[in-house]
Amino acid sequence: MTRGPRQSTSYADKARLVAKAGKNPPAVILVEPQLGENIGTAARAMMNCGLSDLRLVNPQQDWLSEKAVGASSGAGEILEQARKFATVEEAIADLEVIYATTARRREMVKTVMTARNAAADMRARGETGQRLGLLFGRERSGLTNHEIGLANTLVEVPLNPEHSSLNLAQAVLIVGYEWFQAGYDGPEQMMTFNRTKPVTKELLQELFDHLEKELILCGFLRNEEKRPSMIVNIRNMLQRAELTLQEVRTLHGMIVELRYGRRDDRPQRQPGRKADEA
Ligand code: SAH
Asked: Which residue minimizes the CA distance to atom 8 of ligand 1?
């Protein structure tokens, strides 16, 4: 394989790769954000969630100020590429479906989705090539009814009804998080093995044999009637530990030393080799 000059992949390109199956991720449109810092932290939240298209409608402060860039904590590229518009209409002109996020119910007939439902809807629409946008309102007063009238759907993050208003960047984060999760297909739980892996069942069986033999010899498994069920319990306990080869070796060593003490002539056991008769 020939190596060309190092290609610098832009964040937007990388974000598209990261957000699996994330065709047409939504643009984030902040309407008259009042504080540069909030624009910075919103950009940070976008980067966390693999979003990259930031649009600012009449921002009240400089989004490239030191404060804003500092608050973005490494998401400066999103701020640099942010586009400024005079009106919401102009900011959404090229988009096809708009979701207006709001902390308050409005006196109007309109579909309200949870952020989770909106995420599934955005994924489905994005897959079919639709261009999407998420509207976020002013810190102090949210979105006007006129602005909401420009959207297809309302999105509300369901929270404590007595205290449901989020900080602007937190709202971007939660809605972005749901969008990201809707395309996440990684494991929900896993063990990190730090360059090792669980031992084979053959080596685990050797450990069981060793341990059970010694437990019979020392009298712990003296009750022959209960022995089979005790053995199953002990095996279950050890199976749950997902032991690595090193851990199995350590346990063999512990059993030997408990039995014989620290003696140079004690029987040697190496997992993987046939065990010596003790
Ligand atoms: N005081 C404003 C809230 C502004 S919070 C009001 O009463 O409307 C800034 C923006 O964050 C909101 O306009 C909205 O876009 C978003 N936001 C805040 N809380 C939200 C929630 N619970 N669900 C959805 N969006 C929310």
From this structure: 142
Q: How many A from CA of 102 to the centre of ligand 1?
A: 5
Boundaries of domain holding 175? 18-181
> Does the beta carbon of 171 sit less than 6 angstroms from any atom of ligand 1?
yes
E strands, 77-209, are: 83-85, 97-101, 112-114, 132-136, 153-156
Question: Quick one: 109 and 210 in the same domain?
Answer: no
Q: Could you give the number of structural domains in the chain?
A: 2
Q: Which of 230, 55, 48 is nearest to 131 (CA)?
A: 55
- The predicted-structure confidence for 137-166, as pLDDT tens digits, reads as follows 999 999 999 999 999 999 999 999 999 999
Quick check: 2 pLDDT over 50?
no
Rounded to 5 degrees, φ, ψ at 41 are: -70, -30
For residue 266, being part of any structural domain is answered with no
Find the 222 Cα to ligand 1 centroid distance in Å. 68
Task: Ligand 1 pocket test: pick from 56, 60, 98, 101 the residue with the most ligand atoms within 8 Å of its Cβ.
Answer: 101
Q: Is residue 94 part of a domain?
A: yes
* pTM over 0.90, yes/no: no
Determine which residue's CA is closest to atom 5 belonging to ligand 1: 139
